[in-house]
């Protein structure tokens, strides 16, 4: 078990706010990537609270009420069977693993729902309702949100309402990767991500943060001013100043520059903001398609995205 004793800090020791994370769980073993990331990222698992969330998939043959999409009696029986067997088993296995790794049993909660409006919608609904600090997805969850990204027309409202950070976890951590690459630009979402990163790293000295700006031709943004604003947010959220670095890269391809920096620096996570934009316009959902490009190509680190 991991000790809950705080690591040393240059600041006076103050109690850190407990972080509450929503982790999606399924029968697919690859979804454990999010569990493994959490285990690797937080040195003291007793500093966090976890809700493990399972969405029972809706079978095509289920008959639903046309008014409120509630299942008929036969569908209810099938749903309860899935909840009691497959869903609960997947959640219990995940719970046992993370508790064995050092998370307090009392701080791990489980929840099973059936897919009334689709898996992605159920995750979003729970994330909004629970006011979690972040929604942490494994590999299968990545494909769910990938589908949502591709179908920008039918999910335009959902993208507008995604006001919580999403952590997308790819391959299991090797135990060697450290630190967070914070992509900084002149958008409000970028600064909100800086605040989120600072909050999540409050009281931790396990990870450094590199503020990174990929300056493309024609850009009028002032990196120094952007870094000063982001640094202020990181410090205000609780980070130690000696853990914050900054770097500017000149590049015609922001996605390539971020991927290159992330891989060479062996970062455990790359964090960035995104804009909501107008319905049906992918370039406005993801300015320059940077978030989309990273989502499709990232493999070596987790991707944190926030509006």
Automatic annotation (TrEMBL):
Top-rank taxon, per record: Bacteria
Gene3D superfamilies per record: 3.40.50.12370
CDD domains: USP-like (cd00293)
Stated family: Belongs to the universal stress protein A family.
PANTHER family xref list: STRESS RESPONSE PROTEIN NHAX (PTHR46268), UNIVERSAL STRESS PROTEIN UP12 (PTHR46268:SF6)
UniProt-recorded name of the protein: Universal stress protein
Species lineage: Bacteria, Pseudomonadati, Thermodesulfobacteriota, Desulfovibrionia, Desulfovibrionales
């Amino acid at each position: 078990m991991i000790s809950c004793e705080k690591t040393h800090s240059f600041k006076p020791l103050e109690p850190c706010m407990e972080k509450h994370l929503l982790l999606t769980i399924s029968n697919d073993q690859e979804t454990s990537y999010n569990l493994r990331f959490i285990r690797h990222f937080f040195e003291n698992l007793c500093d966090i609270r976890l809700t493990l969330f399972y969405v029972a998939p809706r079978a095509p043959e289920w008959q639903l009420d046309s008014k409120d999409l509630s299942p008929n009696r036969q569908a209810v029986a099938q749903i309860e069977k899935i909840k009691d067997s497959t869903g609960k088993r997947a959640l219990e296995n995940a719970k046992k693993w993370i508790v064995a790794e050092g998370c307090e049993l009392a701080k791990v909660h489980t929840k099973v729902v059936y897919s009334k409006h689709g898996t992605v919608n159920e995750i979003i609904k729970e994330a909004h309702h629970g006011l979690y600090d972040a929604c942490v997805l494994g590999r299968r969850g990545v494909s769910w949100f990938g589908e949502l990204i591709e179908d920008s027309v039918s999910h335009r409202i959902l993208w507008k309402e995604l006001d919580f950070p999403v952590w997308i976890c790819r391959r299991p951590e090797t135990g060697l990767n450290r630190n967070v690459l914070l992509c900084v630009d002149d958008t409000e979402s970028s600064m909100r991500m800086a605040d989120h990163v600072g909050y999540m790293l409050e009281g931790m000295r396990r990870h450094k943060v590199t503020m990174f700006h990929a300056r493309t031709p024609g850009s009028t943004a002032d990196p120094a001013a952007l870094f000063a604003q982001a640094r202020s947010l990181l410090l205000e959220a609780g980070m130690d100043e000696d853990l914050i670095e900054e770097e500017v890269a000149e590049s015609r391809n922001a996605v390539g520059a971020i991927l290159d920096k992330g891989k060479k620096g062996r970062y455990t996570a790359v964090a960035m903001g995104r804009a909501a934009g107008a319905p049906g316009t992918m370039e406005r959902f993801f300015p320059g398609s940077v978030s989309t490009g990273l989502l499709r190509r990232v493999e070596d680190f987790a991707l944190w995205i926030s509006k």
